[in-house]
Design goal:
By secondary structure, this protein is α+β, with helices and mostly antiparallel strands. About 20% of the residues lie in helices and about 25% in strands. It has one domain: L-amino peptidase D-ALA esterase/amidase (4-Layer Sandwich), CATH 3.60.70.12. The protein contains five helices and 16 strands. It is globular.
């Protein structure tokens, strides 16, 4: 297998994880029966949150609540899940885990945990009747820790794929990745589950890392080059892909500022996914601000850093992914099959 030549471009943060942001813990649940799962980002003590939904086929929960004009100021967790809209059920398990610990928004005699969520489509990989449910969400919350989370073909990235212009048979394995950077006493991190119609490109080299393969499957061909040749998708349907993720900082932000950071974080997707935000994707990014650093953040600067760590997390997602093989599964290579990583 061969990979295309490279061309230099920009620099990105190297290494790190979203859990380096004080107050953030991450847990995965990966279903052992087929490649699907969910990932929970817990905000200890709550976090101010924003969201930006940029794709045209989103599957989300509690996103309206995050509008700056709406009441609730903090969320307690964010859920990323496979399973298409069915995967939103996993948020109920995260809520139950939080409720058992007395965590939630005061509402009369109860505390209601606030758990925004977004899902990606992986029902074409294995038995579509198996998808994340409340038990999966509970297990992911139970597994959450401040350690650097596993990356690649785990959690919400277990069934993720990329390069689907001509369907799964010419696609490659996607996954979930994380990255962080610390500047001026403030940490910004990201975790992203990459399941795009488009390809993943390393903006530091211009190199195609994972994406559409040639008809014989042995070369990386690229989606935009195929489109420029007049190869248009014939069988794709809205919602058949979607990249979802969360950025976080230990700076203090308002809800409006957190929303701006989420918006700017999408620039990281645009740098690394080509094409992005299509009719077939429901690309959604959340932003969390824990305020644990005690420093107020400049939203524009934090948004720029969020874009950088988002781009780095996208690259990690496909570089850490393994191939997809097994009974009843499409035979899909991973980035390591084409590159020496």
């Amino acid at each position: 297998m061969s990979a295309p030549a490279s061309a230099p471009s920009v620099r990105l943060p190297e290494g790190g994880a979203i859990t380096e942001v004080a107050g953030i813990r991450v847990g995965h649940h990966t279903d052992p029966r087929r490649p699907t799962g969910c990932t929970v980002i817990l905000a200890e003590g709550g976090a101010v949150a924003g969201v930006d939904v940029r794709g045209a086929a989103p599957g989300t929960r509690e996103t309206d609540l995050l509008a700056p004009t709406n009441l609730v100021e903090q969320v307690h967790a964010v859920l990323l899940a496979g399973g298409s809209a069915f995967g939103l059920d996993a948020a109920g398990g995260v809520m139950r885990w939080l409720e058992e610990r007395g965590i939630g928004h005061p509402a009369g005699p109860a505390r209601v945990p606030i758990v925004p969520a977004a899902i990606l489509f992986d029902l074409g990989v294995g038995d579509h009747r198996i998808r994340p449910d409340a038990a999966a969400g509970y297990a992911a919350a139970q597994a959450a820790s401040a350690q650097a989370p596993a990356q690649g073909s785990v959690g919400a990235g277990a069934g993720a794929t990329v390069g689907k212009l001509h369907g799964l048979h010419r696609a490659m394995k996607g996954g979930i990745g994380t990255a962080s950077v610390r500047v001026g006493g403030i940490t910004v991190g990201a975790i992203v589950a990459v399941n795009a119609v488009g390809d993943v490109i390393d903006p530091t080299t211009g190199r195609l890392v994972a994406g559409l393969r040639s008809a014989d499957g042995r070369r990386l061909e690229g989606t935009t080059p195929a489109l420029l040749r007049g190869e248009f998708p014939a069988a794709l349907q809205a919602g058949m892909a979607t990249t979802i993720g969360c950025v976080a900082t230990d700076a203090a932000l308002t809800k409006a500022q957190a929303q701006k950071v989420a918006q700017m974080a999408h620039d990281g997707l645009a740098r690394t996914i080509d094409p992005v935000h299509t009719l077939f994707d429901g690309d959604t990014l959340f932003a969390l601000a824990t305020g644990r650093s005690g420093l107020s953040g400049n939203p524009s600067a934090l948004g720029a850093l969020a874009a950088a760590v988002t781009a780095a997390a996208v690259l990690q997602a496909v570089r850490q992914a393994g191939p997809l093989r097994g009974p009843g599964l499409p035979d899909l290579p991973c980035a390591a099959d084409f590159h020496s990583l």
